[in-house]
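Structure ticket #2291
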Amino acid sequence: MPMLHINPVFDAAGRNYQQTRIAHWDAIARKRDTWQGLGKWYHRRLAEVYRFHVPPNLRVLELGCADGRLLAELQPARGVGVDFSAEMIRRAQARHPELIFIHADTHDLSMLEETFDIIILSDLVNDLWDVQRVLEEVKRLCTPRTRIILNFYSRLWQVILGAAQALNLATPNLFQNWLTREDVGSLLNLAGFEIIRATQEVLLPLPFGGLANRFLVRFWPFNHFALSNFVVARPIPVRAEEPKVSVVVAARNEAGNIKAIFERVPPMGRETEIVFVEGHSKDDTYAAIQREIAAHPSTPSLLLKQPGIGKADAIRAGFEQATGDVLMILDADLTVPPEDLPRFYEALVSGKGEFINGVRLVYPMEKEAMRTLNFIGNKFFSMAFSWLLGQSIKDTLCGTKVLYKRDYEQIAANRSYFGDFDPFGDFDLIFGAAKLNLKIVDLPIRYRERTYGVTNISRWKHGLLLLRMVAFAARRIKFV
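Resolution: structure written out below.
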C-alpha cells in the first residue's frame, strides 16, 4: 500500500507543533517494538468498549490509528486508518494487510472521497493543534447516519499519568489540550455534530481492574474518577424527504375500536397505510377489520393473522409486512389518540430524533387511564432504563413508538444480543435503538381512558418480568 502524506497549511507555530509530535510518535512506534508498559490493559478495555458500540462489518475510519490494533479489533467490512506518524503506518500495514492505512495529517483529509458508518478519534483530540478543523474535515466524510466516537483522557489523571510516564510504565505524551466533555461537546456543535450519549470508562487500567471498570465506574462518585471520557455523536440532521408511513396496529379483542381507527388515523408523508395484526381475539375483531377495510377502499390497509402470541410477536409480524419507510405502533385501545401521530412523524422526519418514544407520564391522565400502582411501576422503570441506556426514557411501556424501517431491520438483525423474552416488544425496540446509538427522543402525549375492552397486561406477572429485563439489560448494556 503506497503511503500518502498531506501537508496541511499551518502557521509557523502550528507547523512546529505538528513536526514535534510527528517525531515523538515515530519514536514511540520504534519503542513499542520491544516495550509495552502497563498501557496494554487500558487499550484492552478500550477495545471492549468500542466493540460494544461498533458492530462488525461496517465501514470504519480511525483517525490517529497508530499501529492499527483498535481498528483491526472491530472487524470492519472496510477499515481505513489515518496517522501522521510514518513509523506507525509502516507497522500498521505490516500487521494488518487486510486494512487500508494512509500516512497523512488528520487536519487535512482531502485524500478521502468516501463516507463511513463509524469514525473513531481515540485518544486524539487532546493531542491536536486545531480540534474544530479536524471535526469539520470529518463532517465531509459522514452520512446522516454516521456515528462519531471519541475517547479522551480526564484531566484528573494528569498527575497519575505523568508519574507513570516518568517511571517508564506508560507511553509518554507531550503537552496536552486536556479538554473536558463540555469542551468537546461545544467543538462538536461548532463543527455540525450533536452528542447522543457520553460515559466515563476505565477506572483502574490494571490487570485486576475488571470489577472496577465494568461496575464501579457506572456509579457515583466513582464515575467522576474515570480515566477516559467516551462521547458518541451524530451529524446535526436536516429534514428528510417525505416518506411512506406504515401504522401497525396489534388488535386483540378490540372490535369496538376498529371503525374509529380508520376514521381517526390522519394521512402522513406521501402515503399512509394501516397494517392490522389480529391476535386470536375472542370477539369479532378480525371480522370488524375486514368490514372496515371494505368500507374504506381509499385507505391503504393490510390484515394479518398473528402467527404466535404476545404483542411483540404481533408487532414484528406487522413490521415485516409493512411497506412504509417509517414504522409506527398504534395501540388498538386508542389510549394514545391517533391524532397525535403526526407529532411523532414530524419529530422523526425533521431529524430531531431517530427513535421517537411516546410518554404518558408528563400530562395528567384521565380518571381510569392508568392505575396508581401501574403509574408508580412505570416511573420506576423509566428511571432505571434511563440510567441503563444513557438517554432519557421517561416511559418504557407506552405503546406508541416510531422509527425508520431501515433502523428496525438493524435492530432485528442484532436481536440475539439481548435475547427474545420481551412479550410487549417495547424493550426489544428500546434496547436495540440504544445499542445502535440511535438518538432517542421522548414525546409527551395525553393518555386517555379506554372506551372499549380491558387491558391485556398483568400487573404482577409482567412487573416481575420487567425486573428480570432490567437485570438482563444491565449485563448487556451498562456493565459491558
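Closing remark: The longest strand covers residues 142-153.
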